[in-house]
Specification:
431 residues; alpha/beta; Enolase-like, domain 1; TIM Barrel; 7-stranded parallel sheet; 4-stranded antiparallel sheet; 15 helices; 14 strands
């Protein structure tokens, strides 16, 4: 492969409003900032957005500042990364990203005035990472997505699904009408946000007790509707649940209380995954629980994946569009080698990043309870400007919505991966 010199790197950002307040981790967002990175080599230029989500990547940084200030801090980390790589050369985007991570983490710690989560730093690098992969493909004459998969990750990304079950997000604000609409459209796997903070001013004990009761009621409400539906997308034919706690639970006993409730109402067997029940630093063994526990924010490196697997986690949410594709290649290889499961989750990203995520998801194995691959995409539910954002894709590539609860894939779907290397409409921001 060629040694590629980065002649220039530039940055813009866009503030994208959301349709309604978007709730998770007990807090709410009303907009998501998008950094847009432009990387120029000696022969090619590539641009890519990256969705800033400080609340997801480091809730402590989000809590220290206003939403606007926290987003601007992550944007500053991106800007620093571009300064670091300008004038440098690389053979592999993975090696280049890894080379700047330690210094960039120190910079993020300094400007945020705290020890930030590594996920915060990775989130800041997404736009740069995709721009680097595009330049890498163009400089090396690579004409399909398979061509950029590193050798060590090829086995993990060797699948070819004919369809991907669409995983819509059931946030705190989704009511019974909204849920019924999702199920009527053919949805087979629901990602359900749990762990709601119900009111201000409670002690920790009161907050946890109130949260648990809310989660029980929410699961009952959803199951009473979903149990009446069938789907060809799961092996059992029943709707599957993907519970996302975002680290809100504080003890194994409290989580077990939720699962006991699920069993009482007949919902336990429908739980495909429960994601990130505990904060990353809360190293509780979960291997004896009756459900598969999935890591997300606590797994942002190869070492983290190995740690979570040792704690009984049997699945990991890959987020090429939140933790970089470079890191996700390494993680997918490690999970596959350990016999674990993975899926491509969303970060409420724009259509261009959703298309990158589809290419990755189409090539990794299916979850145990599913009859096909799957992918989470919820930007279409949440961005005010989703349709205009679809027009930012490269020429010849259109965002095709899910149909009957899934994205159908064919040979052309796989060939379309090469179009992501080509210039997209975000280049207009740099003129």
């Amino acid at each position: 492969m060629k040694n590629i010199r980065i002649k220039k790197a530039d940055l813009r950002f866009v503030r994208e409003p959301l349709v309604a307040p978007f709730g998770f981790k007990g807090k709410y967002l009303t907009e998501l900032w998008q950094t847009v990175v432009c990387v120029e080599s000696d022969n090619f230029k590539a641009t890519s957005p990256g969705t800033i989500s400080v609340l997801w990547s480091d809730a402590n940084v989000f809590g220290d500042h206003s939403p606007e200030k926290s987003s601007s801090l992550m944007r500053d980390v991106t800007a620093r990364a571009l300064e670091m790589i300008t004038g440098e050369s690389f053979v592999s985007p993975i090696a280049l990203i890894n080379s700047i991570l330690p210094e960039l983490k120190k910079y993020a710690d300094k400007i945020c005035n705290r020890n930030v989560a590594e996920t915060f730093v990775l989130n800041s690098l997404v736009g740069l990472d995709y721009a680097l992969w595009s330049v890498y493909a163009l400089e090396n004459g690579i004409t399909d997505f398979d061509g950029i998969i590193p050798d060590h990750a090829r086995e993990a990304l060797s699948y070819r699904h004919e369809r991907l079950a669409h995983i819509p997000l059931v946030s705190y604000a989704v009511d019974e009408k909204g849920l019924t609409g999702l199920l009527d459209s053919g949805t087979g796997l629901l990602k359900i946000k749990i762990g709601k903070a119900c009111q201000e001013g409670l002690t920790h004990s009161e907050d946890m007790k109130t949260m648990l009761e809310w989660d029980k009621e929410r699961l009952t409400q959803i199951h009473n509707i979903a149990k009446n539906y069938k789907t060809p997308l799961s092996k059992s034919g029943n709707i599957r649940y993907y519970l996302d706690a975002n680290g809100r639970y504080d003890s194994l006993e409290r989580l077990e209380a939720l699962l006991c409730h699920a069993e009482r109402i007949g919902a336990l067997d429908s739980i495909e995954l429960i994601e990130e029940p505990f904060a990353p630093e809360n190293e509780i063994f979960v291997g004896n629980l009756p459900v598969t526990v999935n890591a997300d924010e606590s797994a942002h490196s190869l070492a983290d994946v190995e740690k979570r697997l040792s704690l009984g986690y049997k699945a990991v949410a890959l987020k090429p569009i939140a933790k970089t594709m470079s890191v996700s290649f390494d993680m997918a290889a490690a999970i596959h080698k350990a016999g674990g499961q993975c899926l491509c989750a969303d970060l409420t990203v724009v259509p261009l990043l959703a298309e990158w995520n589809k290419q990755f998801a189409a090539r990794i194995g299916a979850l145990n309870g599913m009859a096909c691959g799957c992918i989470e995409i919820n930007g279409n539910q949440n961005y005010v400007n989703w349709q205009p954002l679809c027009k930012m894709l490269p020429d010849g590539l259109e965002y095709t919505p899910e149909r009957n609860g899934c994205f159908d894939l064919n040979e052309q779907s796989y060939l379309n991966g090469a179009k992501l290397f080509n210039q997209n409409k975000y280049i207009e921001l740099f003129k």
